[in-house]
Amino acid sequence: MSRRMVLLLAITCAVAVGNIYFPQAIGPLVADGLKVSADSAAVVVTATQVGYTAGIVLLVPLGDRIPHRTFLVVLLGLTGLALLTAGCAPALPPLVAASALVGLTTVAAQIVGPLAAGLVAADRRGAVIGTLLSGSTGGMLLARTFSGTLGDWLGWRAPYLVAAVLALLLATVLAFTVPATTPASRQSYPALLAEPLRLLRTEPELRRSCWYQATVFAGFSAVWTCLALLLTSPAYGLGAQAVGMLALVGGATMLCTPLAGRLVDRRGPDPVNLVCLLGVLLSAAILAAGALGGTPGLAALTVGTLLLDVSMQSGMVANQARVYALRPDARSRLNTAYMTCAYLGGSAGSWLGVRAWGRSGWWGVCALVALLTVLALVRHLPVLRRPRGSLPVPAQAPRRNTAPTPPDPPLAAR
After folding, report:
1. Contact partners, residue 274, CB within 8 Å, separation at least 6
2. Is 66 in a helix, a strand, or coil?
């Protein structure tokens, strides 16, 4: 796969992921424009996120049934139309409904990953996954700035309309550039929906990857959920904008994830997972110093969140490389199981983080992050005692004989 194609797919990830996050920056503008309360306008963000979760469960498994090019073009086309509808919504209820459709269909990034894993040689898979994750991170970070600036200038509808044009334009480009692929499965839709649960039950390496990501993402979500509470507390007395400025530090992960991917290609995912888990554990210790307040505390928060972001995202590269190598004929269904577990972990982490904050303050949140990381390390350390290569992940695939098509379909660009 050429570098130009990798770049195009990374941009696709950025646009798709950005659609989830840009409404967060224009909530007050939506409230003013539609004459509703700020709390009511916040439902737009919730609807988008709920729709995205539903899209991962209901649509991503179809990536093994529908040719990737066709599926991506249809998804981006539907996203563009949903964004256009949202941008023209006359009232809040139609906007909420359109936002749910945006979230449901903007799952292109979860289709791009399995597509790229099939288009690239195994010894380059980690580097490509890292680059795609950089695109997703860039979309997440830039979307808020883009929508906030454009919304202040032209009103809340402008970000939706511009995002619609970008999605439709990208759908057109992908229709002529993405190579044709052969669907890996002919299973019925109900069977595809049930498959992620079966894969979780039968694939121990998938369960292991899901456990790592769920625990680390839970800690990540706990930190970012409670960070606003800390920065607006008497220890700092800052505004909510300080959280947004601190989040920009996470842009460094765009440079680190491709490097992590190359390390995965050279060393395998397990050593990278170990370094990342230790990095999260160290970040919990550094973040704990943030409870001191003042300039030293703010410096600790900056360094700690940067290390946490880099470790979490780099670990995700290792986990996805391991998952995509398990079953070439079921990569979309594997990704559905993996991402669902990750988001469930994140949701649980946010809930636990708020309760840890209520009981023990910021120290309790950092202790929660450390505890979750230790749980992942306890699962990971026995794996490191195995001789390298004693359990080759791809060797598990031939044991199944359920797929009616060859497990590694011929791809035009291979």
Report:
1. 380, 384
2. coil
- Give the Cα separation of 261 and 177 in Å (integer): 25
pLDDT string in tens for the chain (414-residue length): 678 899 999 999 999 999 988 887 787 788 889 988 877 887 888 888 889 989 999 999 999 999 999 999 999 999 999 999 999 999 999 999 999 999 999 999 999 999 998 888 888 888 899 999 888 888 887 887 788 888 888 889 999 999 999 999 999 999 999 998 888 888 899 999 999 999 999 999 999 999 999 999 999 989 987 887 888 788 888 765 666 667 677 777 778 888 999 999 999 999 999 999 999 999 999 999 998 888 899 999 999 999 999 999 999 999 999 999 998 889 999 999 999 999 888 888 888 998 999 899 999 999 999 999 999 999 998 877 766 544 444 434 334 444 444 444 433 343
Give the separation between CA 373 and CA 151, rounded to whole angstroms.
39
SS3 264: helix
Q: Are 20 and 103 in contact (CB under 8 A)?
A: yes
Q: What is the pTM of this model?
A: 0.80
Contact 409, 332 (CB under 8 A): no
Nearest to 351 by CA among 230, 247, 226: 226
Q: Shortest CA distance to 269 belongs to which of 203, 336, 202, 205? A: 205
